[in-house]
Amino acid sequence: MLDALVIAPHPDDAELGMGGTIALMLAQGMSVGILDLTDGEPTPRGSVEIRTRETAAASAALGITWRENLGLPNRRLRASLRARGSLAGVIRRSRPRWLFAPHWVDAHPDHVAATRLVEAARFWAKLTKCDLDGEPWHPERIYHYACVHLKTVRRPSFVVDISSTWNLKCRSLACYASQFPQPTGTPGVLDRVAAADAWWGSVIGTSHGEPFWAREPVALRTFSGLF
Fold first, then answer.
1. In this predicted model, what pLDDT tens digit does every residue of 20-34 receive, in sequence order?
2. Domains and CATH numbers, the chain
């Protein structure tokens, strides 16, 4: 049983959006898994074999030991009934308390489809008298991380302080060399991620942070974690 299942449209999306938070949860003794919905290929500089090696290295950098790929088609990801059933089956098997999915507003169709799929599969995973494998399970919450292709800033529900694990996020992203080449003269993807993490950290008075959104109210049992 997982505490958290992070669902990513492509390998590297989980690390981009919440790599620091994943490492923080693991450091705090939580069980965290990542489910990549597609293999992310084709890309200009990648291949299935290259992405598989990079994903394994990034998982090791974060300390992730539970990671699977659902095998859905990259660039043509859809929240179909078949995909919903496959994802619901993984949820019933891994039994996470929380699900993490991309923000629901994005320019990338795969990211939008991924979040629609996660929300639908969460509901299906609790069904009885159905042909899904495993026992019914309903994750308590879905939280949404920032891995978007729109240059907009939305007010988050909360920001996680990742000052202590930001270096692990950077190490994991560096593993995806085929996806993040360092350009000359202009900021690259990793430069923009570092700047965003630093900005969100400044908002909450720390060096680095990662924003999250929730459609449902966020419940607290103690104020000890607030600052």
1. 999 999 999 999 999
2. 4-213 (3.40.50.10320)
